[in-house]
Amino acid sequence: EDNLAPKPHPHALLLTGSTLYTSGEKSGMSRACCSIVAAVCLAVSFSSAVAATHTSPTGTASSILRLPLASGRLDLPNRRLRGGGGRKVEFKVTCKETEYGQNVAIVGGGDGLGNWKKPVVMKPSPFPEWKVTCNVDGEAEYKYCMVDGDGKIAKWEHKGKVNRKVKGDCDSTNDGVYGKIPGAPVHRPPPSGGPPTREDMTAGVHLGEAKVSMGSGQANKFDQMIIDGNGHAGSWRQKLEMVKDFFYDENKANEAGFDRQHPKTEHLASIAIYLHFLSTNQVACQDTGGHHRPCAHANLASAIDEALNKVTKTPANAYLCRKIRPLLPSYSSDYTAQVPLTRIRDIAHRSDIPKWLKDDIKHNLQNKLHRCAGPEDLVTAERIWNNVKDMGDISGAFKEQMWIFMGELKEFFNAGGLDEKIDDALKKGEPDGAAKGLMEGFFHEKHAGHAQSRLEAIGRLRTHFSNWFETADHGEVMQRTRLIDVGLEQYAFVQMAEAAAVCEEQSRGQGVDWGYLLDVSRHALTNAMLSETADVKEAHSLIAEAESMMGSAVDAQRAKPWLDRALRVCTTFSDAMQKLFLERVLPIGQGLGVDGHAAAVFVEAEVRSNLLFQLSRVLSAGAKTAKHQLGAPPWTALQPGSAVGKLAEYGSLQEFVDSKQQGEDLVLLLKHAEGEEDIPPNVKGIVLAQELPLLSHLGVRARQQGVVFACSDGEAPFNEIKSAAKSMVG
User: What are the tens digits of pLDDT across the range 67-118?
Assistant: First the structure.
């Protein structure tokens, strides 16, 4: 049992929503040799309702709707040399896939590289190239990673054992593209010219990378029009105009098969995918040499937004329009003016800054912004700001004006924060008088309340906005209010993450506080309903039942069916995301030359960045408590179904990948999983000795690939399964 070497078993394992048995039993093997059945039979039947697959008729799901228009953040730490001795080495890598607020960092062996613990943040110079100089003693191994604003690692470029190396006599490196490490295995697509198989689309070469092969899938007619149009459109303005033309140019719409009056949901999904890649710098913009001020971009955004207002309203279409809108620039009157963003011109001509700074601002920012604006200009502005903000010999008055301009530029790219947006709305009296008190109430709870009161305040304010949207006219007030609504939903995600942590901690002890769980869950369902990521009728019913239970003593017997229903809302959302995006994002990404990793994780990002992901964590904690209180088997089915394959035991999924065991179908008995791995194509079922969130990366992958997946609440029931399985060998 302590030996974690692979132990294949000769009998296949079949796990279904209500039974688990071996192929030996089906052929007449003694039931004594199949005692594995009883333990999981009850467990999976108990849990199958939680993880049952439902196909949403709407095809809708999340509302991530982040505002990731550029890389870096305003208060990027100053570059400094790390470590006391050794030689100085300049590290350089190219990375385009950071999101707004993220930076590339390096971490490795030795003090200068953070001792594999503390990443050293790099600087874009210029984006997408990242540089940093560190002190290195002799030879050293290292990797690049992405860090969030708080300096915590958000993603490794490669989670395997393959590292980069710097030689002892090297004083600079050019490591090429982020994520492509020399010596790391590369997945090769099959030579056939047909459509990709499920294995092609979802099998990664290394579990830690979340890599998904782009396969050989062909873009459909409309998607190919986007790909070709992007190739002919160099600048950001031209790319936005290409999207606008689908709605306004009859000839282009007819050529693409695009219905301008009633666009198909799949066409809106493709536009959303394209604009997402464009806004996150996955699709590069070029300076085409024309002369179009930012007002041209603002007017294009207004035209696209107005066309979206006329789209036939279905939950799926509403979700997609909601996703598209924050990816457009602002069309506030400040930016539709004939000469917008004039502050930077005044800044560039100040007499209290050195010539090198004047030239940098004038040539790399002012002229570019007023001639051919694009998301890369925000990166340039942040670079300039980060270079001068801590310089003591730079004028304070200049810094003040530059800081104000940074805010204006972020507003143009819709990359500002929620507080700033609400402050601006309060000053302008938008969208109406009734909203003022609700926004002030939200601010009070945001800075003085707790998760429950904040969620309640968010729900009240968003409900008011929802009613206001029904009669409001197209215009800048509508756009600003919609962006506040999106920001409120994102803030609700953060509050639900806090609530999920509380419930998960409680479930490991005496059990969840049912009143707390029901309260935060009903607020989450209210927000999901307002974003149309949950069926309105079902959400209303669940909210009413939760409020009914909150008024009396709650027991597990009553809570369990409610938890099952609420969890189905979450899994329906996950399934809808796959249906909406999975088959489109891979060929579109390939055609646009997008990094394969960014395309591969698109669907999962939609799921895990949505409020319903955090709700699923809360509900799963409640389901665990209910099982214990009802004396039910300690198993959860992340993906019910049937799986046939040889049993093999490994310590972890990573260990299985390292073993390079391929070919025959397997059902794995695993003691541990990080939750961030991918599932190789020959794995047909997994029995895991720990809990995992229903919508974890691994859970989403299992649902995508149809891999049957059962999780144990602890090692004791898992060890019973292992013991029963071993009896089949002798």
Answer: 222 333 223 233 333 344 568 899 999 887 787 668 899 998 877 888 777 8
**Angle of CA points 89, 90, 93, to nearest 5°:** 135
For residue 693, what are the contacts with CB-CB under 8 A and spacing of at least 6? 613, 616, 617, 620, 675, 699
Beta-bridged to residue 105, according to DSSP, are 121, 145
Distances (CA, A) of 503 to 123, 500, 555, 569: 39, 5, 16, 19
* Domains in the chain: boundaries: 1-52+558-596+612-730, 87-166, 212-413, 418-557+597-611
b/e string for 651-668 if b means 16 or more Cβ within 10 A?
Answer: ebbbbbbeeebeeeebbb
Task: Convert the pLDDT of each residue in 623-675 to its tens digit.
Answer: 999 999 999 888 888 899 889 999 999 999 988 988 888 788 999 999 988 87
Q: Are 12 and 644 in contact (CB under 8 A)?
A: yes
562 contacts 542 by C-beta, under 8 angstroms: yes
- Nearest CA to 129 out of 331, 427, 379, 420 is that of 379
pTM listed for this prediction: 0.71
User: What's the token pair of residue 112?
Assistant: 């200068």
Q: Which two tokens stand for residue 72?
A: 């870096």
The CA-based dihedral angle spanning residues 31, 33, 34, 35, taken in that order and rounded to the nearest 10 degrees: 90
Q: b or e along 382-399 (b: 16 or more beta carbons within 10 Å of the residue's beta carbon)?
A: bbbbbbbbeeeebbeebb
- End-to-end CA distance of the chain, in Å? 15
- Helix (H), strand (E), coil (C) string for 552-592: CCCCHHHHHHHHHHHHHHHHHHHHHHHHHHHHHHHHHHHHH
As given in the structure block, the two tokens for residue 548 are 């009914």
Tell me the residue type at 23: S
Class of domain 87-166: mainly beta
Tokens of 496: 């639900």
Residue 581 and residue 599 in contact, taking contact as beta carbons nearer than 8 Å:
no
β-pair partners for 695: none
